[in-house]
Amino acid sequence: xxxxxxxxxxxxxxxxxxxxxxxxxxxxxxxxxxxxxxxxxxxxxxxxxxxxxxxxxxxxxxxxxxxxxxxxxxxxxxxxxxxxxxxxxxxxxxxxxxxxxxxxxxxxxxxxxxxxxxxxxxxxxxxxxxxxxxxxxxxxxxxxxxxxxxxxxxxxxxxxxxxxxxxxxxxxxxxxxxxxxxxxxxxxxxxxxxxxxxxxxxxxxxxxxxxxxxxxxxxxxxxxxxxxxxxxxxxxxxxxxxxxxxxxxxxxxxxxxxxxxxxxxxxxxxxxxxxxxxxxxxxxxxxxxxxxxxxxxxxxxxxxxxxxx
Length: 309
What we know:
This protein is an alpha/beta fold and about 300 residues long. It folds into 2 domains: about 5-110; about 115-305, Vaccinia Virus protein VP39 (Rossmann fold), CATH 3.40.50. The chain has helices at about 15-25, 65-80, 100-110, 155-165, 185-190, 205-215, 245-250, 255-260, 275-285, and strands at about 5-10, 30-35, 35-40, 55-60, 95-100, 115-120, 120-125, 140, 175-180, 195-200, 225, 240-245, 260-275, 290-295, 300-305. It has a 7-stranded mixed β-sheet, sandwiched between helices. It has a 5-stranded antiparallel β-sheet with strand order 3-2-4-1-5, sandwiched between helices. The longest helix is centred in the first third of the chain and has 15 residues, at about 65-80. The radius of gyration is 19 Å and the shape is globular. The termini are far apart.
């Protein structure tokens, strides 16, 4: 039987998984699994059950395994300056790899990608799932694939919870900006839960294409605009700005977030490790914003601010 897929195995600090995963996707990775849970975004293991350094399994279409391993090794080395938790003495030998048949991949992928309920009204599920929706639920269909963001990773789930809470508030956000949209899941969730206009800002061309495809598949083109225009060049004000990106980028883009945020609007910052909270709150504490809540899951935080009216 022909082996159609290659699996690359790496052991990494939990805090390095997201950025390393992004680098692997840029090398052509079609999916990521962490701690035996197959996902295209990264579900951190339970600290009471899992390992301190989870094993990451990255899946690629079959090809030259040794060449691929060398490319993975080079990608890891290039990330060392960006990730304080990533060991500087990475092994010089090739990462572990194995091949396996396509039918094994398909079965495993579907088995470990469950539907996700968000708040009281939203159900996110893959196309093959037949979980019955409750009468009050809005359904989004999203399959694992080339871009991050299915709601399973803690940073995405935290943002989804914020969207759901605000959507059920007395004054839900009408205009929403999603910065670093990835798969478009946050933008689609905001639209599905009542936003009348959503801009999904994604400067990575492939991720932007995937986001546009997902928006079209869920028939939300009339509400969600996917754009490659960087936030620095966008115009207008938004009632909710979402930024599920790295802490350093959140800090760097603080003035741009403020420029795009309407009076009394909300700003949700995710992609922040708990130990980075102090640095982020110090940077945003200088702006006309009130910190409303800090939500935490696994090692991650989501900070929700409200602009002074």
